[in-house]
Amino acid sequence: MVLESTTDDVGDFVTAYPGRISLAFLLLTGVFLLGLGNIETESGSDQFVEDLDSFEAFEDIQREFGPSFSESSTSTQLLQRERNVLSRPGLLRMLRAQERLQDHDDLRVTSVSSPARTVALQLDPEATTVERQIDAVESATATEIDQAVRRAADSPGFTSQLSEDFDRQSAAARAAQASVTHGRRSRSSSPPRSS
After folding, report:
1. What is the DSSP letter of 83?
2. pTM > 0.85: yes or no
3. Given a cut of 70, is residue 64 above it in pLDDT?
């Protein structure tokens, strides 16, 4: 009953003063439109990685040496987090993600760099394709993978792609970062490659 009487009162007011109601809505709309100009958005990966040490190092390198890619290429960073990204399942997840990216021609993947790729190359130095890298990890024992991780830790840049909790002895880390480079390819160019 109270709701009906309130609705009736509002309806009577709107029909009695339509000009005032219209003016009030126009003013309210104007206030909202002015507020829209103050909204800021942030897109891209910067909103997620600005506080990472690796991002700060990348920014320092960019300031000192300039951009590393030509204007026709861009890069994407893949972040992987799990209990141990250097375990067989973790390495395979990253390699399969790379494979899916490379399978999409519209993404124009020209190269991929990741800890999983580095470990796979330690297991089989001739595994130059992502398919062969997956095979190398799948066929290796857990001990062989741990040894490959320890050897890879000597490679330049390997540990910078891993979280700070990387433990060389146990061959474990909770996070990894991969870099995917996209570029313009002509129709006659070769298929994407890992680097």
Report:
1. S
2. no
3. no
Whether 177 and 78 have beta carbons less than 8 Å apart is answered as yes
What is the rounded distance in angstroms from the CA atom of residue 59 to the CA atom of residue 53? 10
CB 179 within 8 A of CB 79: no
The answer on pLDDT for 84 being more than 70 is yes
Cα–Cα–Cα angle for 136, 148, 175, rounded to 5 degrees: 95
Rg (CA), the chain: 27
Q: How far is CA 121 from the centre of its chain?
A: 23
pLDDT number for residue 171: 93
Four-residue CA torsion sign, 53, 59, 63, 65: positive
> What does the pLDDT read at residue 74?
83
Residues 91, 120: contact at Cβ < 8 Å? yes
Sheet with 109-113: list strands edge to edge.
74-81, 175-182, 109-113
Range scoring the smallest mean pLDDT among 28-32, 40-44, 185-189: 185-189
Would you list the DSSP string of 123-143? H-TT--SHHHHHHHHHHS-HH
Closest to 107 in 3D by CA, of 70, 58, 68, 73: 73
